[in-house]
């Protein structure tokens, strides 16, 4: 299998590495939404949030917090988006689990928001019923 993020995480392809430990490498995104946009890559290959083991997913979130804290200090950003895409329909283009850490600056034009829709009473009931059933 030829996965670019496996190769970057393993250090076979050079990257702008911000942080590395036994489980993860954190790199700068080559197509940044804003200054300092970083990616958390697990060193082992998992396609998405459903494949990554729970314990590693937990570690990824703890690491995200560490990077956000460092970014606020070093980049003087005003906020952060933590984004994690699953599936082509959700915008995933590299099918090796990763988390985007996107520093936000007042007035930047980064497009990581959505236009709010509406939730009808019927949908509220139908979605709550099927989701609570699936979560049992
Ligand atoms: P996603 O759309 O969530 O799959 O995000 C993939 C991200 O990986 C995009 O933001 C790309 O800019 C980024 N990307 C793709 N190839 C590389 C690479 N070789 N080095 C750094 N970032 C990359
Ligand atoms: Zn991979």
From TrEMBL:
MF annotations from Gene Ontology: catalytic activity
Signal sequence range: none
Gene3D superfamilies to which the protein is assigned, alphabetical: HIT-like (3.30.428.10)
InterPro entries registered for this protein in UniProt: HINT, Histidine_triad_CS, Histidine_triad_HIT, HIT-like, HIT-like_sf
Location of the HIT domain: 4-111
Active site: 98 (tele-amp-histidine intermediate)
Cross-referenced Pfam families: HIT
GO BP, sorted A to Z: nucleotide metabolic process
Residue span of motif Histidine triad motif: 96-100
Protein name: HIT family protein
Native species: Candidatus Scatomonas pullistercoris
